[in-house]
Amino acid sequence: MDVTTLEWTITFAVTIGVLLFDVVVIARDPREPSLKECALALSVYVGGAVAFGLWTLAKHGHDYGVQFFAGWLTEYSLSIDNLFVFLILMAALKVPRKYQQEALLIGIILALVFRGVFIALGYTLIENFSWVFYLFGAFLVYTAAKLVGSYTDDEEEHPEDNAVVKFAQRHMNVGTEYHGLRLWYVENGVRFVSPILIVILALGVTDILFALDSIPAIFGITQEPYLVFTANVFALMGLRQLYFLLGGLLQRLVYLSLGLAFVLAFIGVKLVLHALHENELPFINGGNHVTGAPEISSLVSLGVILTTLVVTAVASLLKAPAGTDEAVAPADLDETPGSDWRE
């Protein structure tokens, strides 16, 4: 894929511009956005992704356009799962509604940074070591098995209990009051660390963990760094609005983890098959390429991913009880932060 310097420059400029716009707007008026605002912004981001995919198809060819759409849908579904964990974090750490936008924006920016780092690292690895596709494929199949296991065991997620957050809580004088994005404040002559720092740490650790899944998954669909980057950018843009638009509806996506498990396992198998074609390991086929291994086309991948996501969403909404969406909806979080989460 021949991507010009101008295309890269425009892509980076637009991405940074959108993030800066969000930062300025939210900093001026920290509040919970209306459903109309969320729906409008989300339609713009999704419409932008579709338009970019069509432009890629027209500019760079059919196969690259299909790869973008398949990668975007995969990353978007993984980001929604990430969003569900963000929702649990907001409830567990009792982030006031008017500051949730700021916290979510930080989480999205961190996700972009970490995924950028992992994209660069992943691309370097696959360019120099073809056998890394075996590792990526095995890791995705392992991740899929873990998702199925956590679903069948009905495990509850507690992302706020990770070691980094617990260490910060034990060794810092964390206060109980939120002051926007201020990381510390003084009260009665005593300096306190704002609880928003704990939220940022929890979001950062969560983003790193999700990047470990998302980057091997996208490289299983396309090895073009430009498509990998743009698919991730469009998948993360609009997540803040989606959080408030769907609210507790995320709780009703009861089969999301199973759908993601199937998608990740499918991409993992595709990566292993691709690795066989590129094989250079001496203990597999004498170090020669396994030309007989089937190749899964980009169009087939897009069809499998799209069908899985649709079936997952429909089955989840039919299965979930009507009251599920009230469990931890953003609008139900208490405005007044408590101190019990610091214990």
Please, could you describe this protein's structure?
The chain is globular and about 75 Å long. By secondary structure, the chain is an all-alpha fold. 68% of the residues lie in helices and 2% in strands. It has helices spanning 5-28, 35-60, 62-92, 97-128, 132-152, 163-171, 195-219, 225-236, 239-246, 256-277, 298-319; strands spanning 184-187, 190-193. The N and C termini lie far apart (53 Å). Mean pLDDT is 79; it is low at 322-329 and 331-343. It has one domain. Helix 3 (62-92) crosses helix 10 (256-277). A two-stranded antiparallel sheet has the order 1-2.
Short description:
The chain has 343 residues and is mostly helical. 68% of the residues lie in helices and 2% in strands.
Features:
343 residues; mainly alpha; 11 helices; 2 strands; globular
What's the layout of helices and strands?
Blueprint: H1 5-28, H2 35-60, H3 62-92, H4 97-128, H5 132-152, H6 163-171, E1 184-187, E2 190-193, H7 195-219, H8 225-236, H9 239-246, H10 256-277, H11 298-319
Antiparallel strand pairs: 1-2
Helix pairs in contact: 1-4, 2-3, 2-9, 3-7, 3-8, 3-10, 3-11, 4-7, 4-8, 5-10, 6-7, 10-11
